[in-house]
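the two lines:
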Amino acid sequence: MMKEMLKLGFVLAAFAAVACVALALVNNVTAPTIAAVKEEKLYGGFRDVFSDADSFKPVADFEYTSSSAVTVDGIFSVIKGDKVAGVVVQVTGPTYDKATVIVGIDGKKVISGVKILEISDTPGFGQRATEPQFYTQFAGKSATSEFVPKVDFDAISGASITTNGFAAIMKEASAAGLRYLESIGGAE
Amino acid sequence: MKKYWNIFVNGLLKENPLLVIMIGLCSSLAVTTKVTNGLGMGLAMTFVLLMSEIIISIFRKLIPDSIRIPIFIIVIASFTTIVDLLMQAYLPSLSEAMGVFIPLIVVNCIIMGRVESFASKHGPLESACDALGMGFGYLWVLCGISLVRELLGSGVFFGLQVIPEDSVITFFARAPGGFFVFGMFIAVTKALKNVRANRALAQKSKKTVAQNNGEAAK
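prediction for all of em together
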Protein backbone atom coordinates (compact mmCIF):
# COMPACT_ATOMS: atom_id res chain seq x y z
CA MET A 1 0.00 0.00 0.00
CA MET A 2 2.70 2.46 1.05
CA LYS A 3 4.89 1.31 -1.80
CA GLU A 4 2.07 1.76 -4.28
CA MET A 5 1.41 5.29 -3.07
CA LEU A 6 5.08 6.19 -3.32
CA LYS A 7 5.19 4.82 -6.83
CA LEU A 8 2.18 6.89 -7.90
CA GLY A 9 3.65 9.98 -6.31
CA PHE A 10 6.94 9.39 -8.06
CA VAL A 11 5.28 8.96 -11.47
CA LEU A 12 3.25 12.11 -11.00
CA ALA A 13 6.32 14.04 -9.88
CA ALA A 14 8.27 12.79 -12.89
CA PHE A 15 5.60 13.99 -15.34
CA ALA A 16 5.33 17.33 -13.56
CA ALA A 17 9.11 17.79 -13.57
CA VAL A 18 9.41 17.13 -17.30
CA ALA A 19 6.53 19.52 -18.00
CA CYS A 20 8.18 22.18 -15.83
CA VAL A 21 11.48 21.93 -17.66
CA ALA A 22 9.73 22.19 -21.02
CA LEU A 23 7.75 25.24 -19.91
CA ALA A 24 10.83 26.89 -18.45
CA LEU A 25 12.61 26.51 -21.78
CA VAL A 26 9.68 28.01 -23.73
CA ASN A 27 9.37 30.82 -21.21
CA ASN A 28 13.06 31.62 -21.53
CA VAL A 29 12.73 31.93 -25.27
CA THR A 30 9.52 33.97 -25.33
CA ALA A 31 9.87 36.21 -22.25
CA PRO A 32 12.08 38.90 -23.86
CA THR A 33 9.82 39.11 -26.93
CA ILE A 34 6.68 39.37 -24.78
CA ALA A 35 8.29 42.11 -22.67
CA ALA A 36 9.33 44.00 -25.81
CA VAL A 37 5.82 43.73 -27.28
CA LYS A 38 4.32 45.05 -24.04
CA GLU A 39 6.73 47.97 -23.75
CA GLU A 40 6.22 48.97 -27.37
CA LYS A 41 2.50 48.93 -26.77
CA LEU A 42 2.82 51.04 -23.62
CA TYR A 43 4.85 53.80 -25.23
CA GLY A 44 2.74 53.66 -28.39
CA GLY A 45 -0.31 54.02 -26.18
CA PHE A 46 1.03 57.18 -24.51
CA ARG A 47 0.69 59.11 -27.79
CA ASP A 48 -2.90 57.90 -28.13
CA VAL A 49 -3.95 59.17 -24.71
CA PHE A 50 -1.90 62.37 -24.80
CA SER A 51 -1.19 63.51 -28.34
CA ASP A 52 0.08 67.01 -27.52
CA ALA A 53 3.36 66.01 -25.92
CA ASP A 54 7.07 65.89 -26.64
CA SER A 55 8.09 63.02 -24.39
CA PHE A 56 7.03 60.90 -21.45
CA LYS A 57 9.08 60.35 -18.33
CA PRO A 58 8.46 57.67 -15.72
CA VAL A 59 7.94 59.18 -12.27
CA ALA A 60 9.99 57.35 -9.66
CA ASP A 61 9.71 59.55 -6.58
CA PHE A 62 5.96 59.49 -6.11
CA GLU A 63 4.13 57.08 -3.83
CA TYR A 64 0.44 56.43 -4.23
CA THR A 65 -1.40 53.84 -2.18
CA SER A 66 -4.61 52.72 -3.77
CA SER A 67 -7.74 52.51 -1.69
CA SER A 68 -9.40 49.79 -3.80
CA ALA A 69 -8.49 46.58 -5.62
CA VAL A 70 -7.10 48.68 -8.46
CA THR A 71 -3.31 48.99 -8.44
CA VAL A 72 -1.32 51.84 -9.94
CA ASP A 73 1.45 50.27 -12.04
CA GLY A 74 3.17 53.45 -13.09
CA ILE A 75 2.91 57.20 -13.35
CA PHE A 76 4.50 59.04 -16.27
CA SER A 77 4.78 62.78 -16.52
CA VAL A 78 4.04 64.32 -19.88
CA ILE A 79 6.72 66.76 -21.00
CA LYS A 80 6.01 69.51 -23.50
CA GLY A 81 8.80 71.99 -24.10
CA ASP A 82 10.44 72.07 -20.70
CA LYS A 83 7.25 71.96 -18.68
CA VAL A 84 4.99 69.22 -17.38
CA ALA A 85 1.80 69.29 -19.44
CA GLY A 86 -0.01 66.51 -17.69
CA VAL A 87 0.23 62.96 -16.47
CA VAL A 88 -0.35 59.47 -17.78
CA VAL A 89 -1.33 56.84 -15.21
CA GLN A 90 -1.13 53.12 -15.84
CA VAL A 91 -3.46 51.05 -13.68
CA THR A 92 -4.50 47.42 -13.44
CA GLY A 93 -7.79 46.46 -11.89
CA PRO A 94 -10.33 43.69 -11.73
CA THR A 95 -13.05 43.70 -14.39
CA TYR A 96 -14.62 40.33 -15.18
CA ASP A 97 -11.04 39.10 -15.28
CA LYS A 98 -8.63 42.04 -15.27
CA ALA A 99 -7.64 44.99 -17.37
CA THR A 100 -4.58 47.21 -17.69
CA VAL A 101 -5.44 50.71 -18.77
CA ILE A 102 -3.58 53.99 -19.31
CA VAL A 103 -5.32 57.27 -18.60
CA GLY A 104 -4.01 60.68 -19.61
CA ILE A 105 -4.93 63.78 -17.58
CA ASP A 106 -4.00 67.28 -18.66
CA GLY A 107 -3.26 70.39 -16.59
CA LYS A 108 -6.94 71.39 -16.55
CA LYS A 109 -7.85 68.15 -14.77
CA VAL A 110 -9.55 66.91 -17.92
CA ILE A 111 -9.05 63.38 -19.20
CA SER A 112 -7.16 63.61 -22.47
CA GLY A 113 -7.58 59.99 -23.46
CA VAL A 114 -7.95 56.40 -22.31
CA LYS A 115 -6.45 53.31 -23.82
CA ILE A 116 -6.82 49.66 -22.86
CA LEU A 117 -3.47 47.91 -22.98
CA GLU A 118 -4.71 44.55 -21.94
CA ILE A 119 -8.03 43.03 -21.03
CA SER A 120 -8.68 39.33 -20.57
CA ASP A 121 -12.46 39.39 -20.37
CA THR A 122 -14.86 37.30 -22.42
CA PRO A 123 -14.81 38.06 -26.14
CA GLY A 124 -18.16 39.44 -27.23
CA PHE A 125 -18.91 40.74 -23.73
CA GLY A 126 -16.22 42.33 -21.57
CA GLN A 127 -13.86 42.48 -24.54
CA ARG A 128 -16.21 45.01 -26.08
CA ALA A 129 -14.58 47.57 -23.80
CA THR A 130 -11.87 47.62 -26.48
CA GLU A 131 -14.32 49.05 -29.01
CA PRO A 132 -13.53 52.76 -29.52
CA GLN A 133 -17.17 53.61 -28.81
CA PHE A 134 -16.59 52.64 -25.19
CA TYR A 135 -13.15 53.88 -24.23
CA THR A 136 -13.13 57.10 -26.26
CA GLN A 137 -16.15 58.40 -24.34
CA PHE A 138 -13.92 59.20 -21.33
CA ALA A 139 -11.85 61.73 -23.23
CA GLY A 140 -12.95 65.28 -22.40
CA LYS A 141 -14.58 64.30 -19.12
CA SER A 142 -13.40 65.85 -15.90
CA ALA A 143 -10.99 63.73 -13.88
CA THR A 144 -12.83 64.76 -10.73
CA SER A 145 -15.95 62.91 -11.96
CA GLU A 146 -17.41 60.13 -9.82
CA PHE A 147 -17.55 57.78 -12.85
CA VAL A 148 -20.93 56.30 -12.04
CA PRO A 149 -21.89 53.80 -14.77
CA LYS A 150 -24.87 54.85 -16.92
CA VAL A 151 -24.80 58.33 -15.31
CA ASP A 152 -21.30 59.61 -16.02
CA PHE A 153 -20.53 57.20 -18.86
CA ASP A 154 -22.29 54.66 -21.06
CA ALA A 155 -22.15 51.05 -19.88
CA ILE A 156 -21.33 48.03 -22.05
CA SER A 157 -24.57 46.16 -22.51
CA GLY A 158 -24.45 42.63 -21.14
CA ALA A 159 -21.21 43.29 -19.29
CA SER A 160 -22.05 45.16 -16.10
CA ILE A 161 -19.18 43.61 -14.14
CA THR A 162 -16.69 44.87 -16.71
CA THR A 163 -18.40 48.27 -16.69
CA ASN A 164 -18.20 48.52 -12.90
CA GLY A 165 -14.59 47.44 -13.07
CA PHE A 166 -13.91 50.31 -15.44
CA ALA A 167 -15.66 52.76 -13.14
CA ALA A 168 -13.26 51.76 -10.34
CA ILE A 169 -10.26 51.84 -12.67
CA MET A 170 -11.11 55.33 -13.95
CA LYS A 171 -11.69 56.61 -10.46
CA GLU A 172 -8.43 55.28 -9.10
CA ALA A 173 -6.39 56.40 -12.11
CA SER A 174 -7.87 59.90 -11.91
CA ALA A 175 -7.24 60.10 -8.17
CA ALA A 176 -3.63 59.04 -8.60
CA GLY A 177 -3.07 61.40 -11.52
CA LEU A 178 -4.64 64.37 -9.74
CA ARG A 179 -2.62 63.65 -6.61
CA TYR A 180 0.56 63.67 -8.66
CA LEU A 181 -0.34 66.91 -10.44
CA GLU A 182 -1.08 68.44 -7.06
CA SER A 183 2.24 67.28 -5.63
CA ILE A 184 4.18 69.07 -8.36
CA GLY A 185 2.02 72.14 -8.01
CA GLY A 186 -0.20 71.66 -11.06
CA ALA A 187 0.60 71.55 -14.75
CA GLU A 188 0.31 73.90 -17.68
CA MET B 1 -3.29 3.24 -44.57
CA LYS B 2 -7.04 2.98 -45.00
CA LYS B 3 -7.37 2.56 -41.24
CA TYR B 4 -5.61 5.84 -40.49
CA TRP B 5 -7.60 7.68 -43.14
CA ASN B 6 -10.85 6.40 -41.62
CA ILE B 7 -9.81 7.57 -38.16
CA PHE B 8 -8.97 10.99 -39.59
CA VAL B 9 -12.20 11.38 -41.58
CA ASN B 10 -14.27 10.25 -38.61
CA GLY B 11 -13.71 13.53 -36.78
CA LEU B 12 -14.50 15.74 -39.76
CA LEU B 13 -18.20 14.99 -39.97
CA LYS B 14 -19.39 11.61 -38.73
CA GLU B 15 -18.21 12.19 -35.18
CA ASN B 16 -17.56 15.91 -35.42
CA PRO B 17 -16.79 17.10 -31.89
CA LEU B 18 -19.00 20.18 -32.20
CA LEU B 19 -21.84 19.13 -34.49
CA VAL B 20 -22.33 15.51 -33.44
CA ILE B 21 -20.65 14.84 -30.09
CA MET B 22 -21.44 18.44 -29.07
CA ILE B 23 -18.55 19.07 -26.70
CA GLY B 24 -16.30 22.10 -26.36
CA LEU B 25 -19.08 24.48 -27.31
CA CYS B 26 -18.39 27.45 -25.03
CA SER B 27 -15.15 28.48 -26.67
CA SER B 28 -16.54 27.89 -30.14
CA LEU B 29 -19.53 30.17 -29.60
CA ALA B 30 -17.55 32.93 -27.96
CA VAL B 31 -14.65 33.45 -30.34
CA THR B 32 -16.49 33.02 -33.64
CA THR B 33 -17.25 36.68 -34.31
CA LYS B 34 -14.37 36.92 -36.80
CA VAL B 35 -12.93 34.36 -39.21
CA THR B 36 -9.36 35.10 -38.07
CA ASN B 37 -10.38 34.37 -34.47
CA GLY B 38 -12.03 31.11 -35.50
CA LEU B 39 -8.97 30.12 -37.47
CA GLY B 40 -6.57 31.02 -34.66
CA MET B 41 -8.59 29.26 -32.01
CA GLY B 42 -9.00 26.18 -34.23
CA LEU B 43 -5.29 25.97 -34.96
CA ALA B 44 -4.24 26.55 -31.34
CA MET B 45 -6.68 23.88 -30.22
CA THR B 46 -5.57 21.43 -32.94
CA PHE B 47 -1.94 21.90 -31.91
CA VAL B 48 -2.65 21.23 -28.24
CA LEU B 49 -4.85 18.25 -29.09
CA LEU B 50 -2.27 16.75 -31.46
CA MET B 51 0.67 17.12 -29.09
CA SER B 52 -1.26 15.90 -26.03
CA GLU B 53 -2.65 12.86 -27.84
CA ILE B 54 0.78 11.90 -29.21
CA ILE B 55 2.57 12.31 -25.88
CA ILE B 56 -0.10 10.49 -23.93
CA SER B 57 -0.37 7.62 -26.37
CA ILE B 58 3.42 7.17 -26.32
CA PHE B 59 3.46 7.02 -22.52
CA ARG B 60 0.10 5.32 -22.10
CA LYS B 61 1.65 2.13 -20.70
CA LEU B 62 3.66 4.12 -18.14
CA ILE B 63 0.65 6.04 -16.81
CA PRO B 64 -0.92 4.29 -13.82
CA ASP B 65 -4.67 4.07 -14.21
CA SER B 66 -5.49 5.66 -10.86
CA ILE B 67 -3.64 8.92 -11.53
CA ARG B 68 -4.23 9.20 -15.27
CA ILE B 69 -6.47 12.29 -15.04
CA PRO B 70 -3.92 14.50 -13.21
CA ILE B 71 -1.24 13.38 -15.65
CA PHE B 72 -3.48 14.19 -18.62
CA ILE B 73 -4.10 17.63 -17.14
CA ILE B 74 -0.38 18.23 -16.66
CA VAL B 75 0.34 17.33 -20.28
CA ILE B 76 -2.57 19.35 -21.69
CA ALA B 77 -1.86 22.37 -19.48
CA SER B 78 1.79 22.38 -20.50
CA PHE B 79 1.00 22.48 -24.19
CA THR B 80 -1.68 25.10 -23.65
CA THR B 81 0.78 27.30 -21.80
CA ILE B 82 3.31 26.83 -24.59
CA VAL B 83 0.74 27.93 -27.18
CA ASP B 84 -0.28 30.86 -24.99
CA LEU B 85 3.30 32.08 -24.57
CA LEU B 86 4.13 31.64 -28.24
CA MET B 87 1.03 33.54 -29.31
CA GLN B 88 1.72 36.37 -26.85
CA ALA B 89 5.24 36.68 -28.22
CA TYR B 90 4.69 36.30 -31.94
CA LEU B 91 0.98 36.92 -32.60
CA PRO B 92 0.10 39.57 -29.99
CA SER B 93 -3.00 40.88 -31.76
CA LEU B 94 -4.51 37.42 -32.18
CA SER B 95 -3.66 36.53 -28.60
CA GLU B 96 -5.47 39.68 -27.50
CA ALA B 97 -8.56 38.87 -29.55
CA MET B 98 -8.79 35.39 -28.01
CA GLY B 99 -8.48 36.76 -24.50
CA VAL B 100 -9.09 34.19 -21.83
CA PHE B 101 -10.03 31.41 -24.27
CA ILE B 102 -6.47 30.36 -25.03
CA PRO B 103 -5.64 29.49 -21.40
CA LEU B 104 -9.07 27.90 -21.21
CA ILE B 105 -8.08 25.30 -23.83
CA VAL B 106 -6.85 23.35 -20.79
CA VAL B 107 -10.40 22.56 -19.77
CA ASN B 108 -11.76 22.13 -23.28
CA CYS B 109 -13.77 18.92 -23.13
CA ILE B 110 -12.73 17.89 -26.64
CA ILE B 111 -9.12 17.44 -25.58
CA MET B 112 -9.88 15.70 -22.30
CA GLY B 113 -12.49 13.54 -24.04
CA ARG B 114 -10.24 12.42 -26.89
CA VAL B 115 -7.24 11.84 -24.65
CA GLU B 116 -9.30 9.73 -22.27
CA SER B 117 -11.32 7.80 -24.84
CA PHE B 118 -8.81 7.48 -27.66
CA ALA B 119 -5.16 8.31 -26.97
CA SER B 120 -4.99 6.28 -23.78
CA LYS B 121 -6.04 3.17 -25.71
CA HIS B 122 -4.33 3.55 -29.11
CA GLY B 123 -0.85 3.95 -30.55
CA PRO B 124 0.75 7.31 -31.37
CA LEU B 125 0.04 7.16 -35.12
CA GLU B 126 -3.65 6.42 -34.73
CA SER B 127 -3.86 9.05 -31.99
CA ALA B 128 -2.23 11.63 -34.24
CA CYS B 129 -4.80 10.86 -36.97
CA ASP B 130 -7.61 11.14 -34.46
CA ALA B 131 -6.25 14.43 -33.13
CA LEU B 132 -5.93 15.89 -36.62
CA GLY B 133 -9.41 14.71 -37.58
CA MET B 134 -11.00 16.08 -34.42
CA GLY B 135 -8.91 19.25 -34.60
CA PHE B 136 -9.83 19.97 -38.21
CA GLY B 137 -13.43 19.01 -37.48
CA TYR B 138 -13.43 21.69 -34.79
CA LEU B 139 -11.54 24.12 -37.03
CA TRP B 140 -13.84 23.96 -40.03
CA VAL B 141 -17.00 24.34 -37.97
CA LEU B 142 -15.46 27.33 -36.18
CA CYS B 143 -14.49 28.89 -39.50
CA GLY B 144 -17.93 28.15 -40.93
CA ILE B 145 -19.76 29.74 -38.01
CA SER B 146 -17.48 32.76 -37.93
CA LEU B 147 -17.77 33.20 -41.71
CA VAL B 148 -21.55 33.46 -41.44
CA ARG B 149 -21.42 35.62 -38.32
CA GLU B 150 -18.80 37.99 -39.65
CA LEU B 151 -20.63 38.36 -42.98
CA LEU B 152 -24.05 39.04 -41.47
CA GLY B 153 -22.93 40.65 -38.22
CA SER B 154 -20.22 43.02 -39.39
CA GLY B 155 -20.63 42.78 -43.16
CA VAL B 156 -17.06 41.62 -43.70
CA PHE B 157 -16.22 38.73 -46.03
CA PHE B 158 -12.52 37.74 -46.11
CA GLY B 159 -11.47 41.22 -45.04
CA LEU B 160 -13.73 42.98 -47.56
CA GLN B 161 -16.64 45.12 -46.45
CA VAL B 162 -19.39 43.63 -48.65
CA ILE B 163 -22.41 44.84 -46.67
CA PRO B 164 -22.43 48.55 -45.76
CA GLU B 165 -21.93 49.08 -42.06
CA ASP B 166 -25.37 50.57 -41.36
CA SER B 167 -27.31 47.64 -42.83
CA VAL B 168 -25.61 44.75 -41.00
CA ILE B 169 -27.55 42.53 -38.61
CA THR B 170 -25.74 43.11 -35.32
CA PHE B 171 -27.65 40.20 -33.80
CA PHE B 172 -25.23 37.81 -35.49
CA ALA B 173 -22.17 39.43 -33.94
CA ARG B 174 -23.64 38.99 -30.44
CA ALA B 175 -23.98 35.85 -28.36
CA PRO B 176 -27.55 34.92 -29.40
CA GLY B 177 -26.45 35.05 -33.03
CA GLY B 178 -23.75 32.55 -32.19
CA PHE B 179 -26.28 30.12 -30.80
CA PHE B 180 -28.54 30.68 -33.78
CA VAL B 181 -25.88 30.02 -36.42
CA PHE B 182 -24.56 27.06 -34.46
CA GLY B 183 -28.08 25.62 -34.24
CA MET B 184 -28.42 25.98 -38.01
CA PHE B 185 -25.19 24.06 -38.53
CA ILE B 186 -26.45 21.25 -36.30
CA ALA B 187 -29.78 21.23 -38.13
CA VAL B 188 -28.09 20.87 -41.51
CA THR B 189 -25.89 18.03 -40.22
CA LYS B 190 -28.93 16.30 -38.80
CA ALA B 191 -30.87 16.76 -42.06
CA LEU B 192 -28.00 15.30 -44.07
CA LYS B 193 -27.89 12.34 -41.72
CA ASN B 194 -31.63 11.80 -42.05
CA VAL B 195 -31.50 11.98 -45.84
CA ARG B 196 -28.74 9.44 -45.89
CA ALA B 197 -30.55 7.13 -43.51
CA ASN B 198 -33.79 7.41 -45.52
CA ARG B 199 -31.97 6.67 -48.74
CA ALA B 200 -30.39 3.58 -47.21
CA LEU B 201 -33.79 2.51 -45.96
CA ALA B 202 -35.44 3.10 -49.35
CA GLN B 203 -32.76 1.11 -51.11
CA LYS B 204 -33.25 -1.73 -48.69
CA SER B 205 -37.02 -1.81 -49.10
CA LYS B 206 -36.66 -1.57 -52.90
CA LYS B 207 -34.47 -4.62 -52.75
CA THR B 208 -36.99 -6.57 -50.70
CA VAL B 209 -39.84 -5.49 -53.02
CA ALA B 210 -37.83 -6.64 -56.01
CA GLN B 211 -37.14 -9.90 -54.27
CA ASN B 212 -40.80 -10.38 -53.44
CA ASN B 213 -41.77 -9.63 -57.04
CA GLY B 214 -39.21 -12.10 -58.25
CA GLU B 215 -40.60 -14.74 -55.95
CA ALA B 216 -44.18 -13.93 -57.01
CA ALA B 217 -43.25 -14.26 -60.69
CA LYS B 218 -41.94 -17.71 -60.03
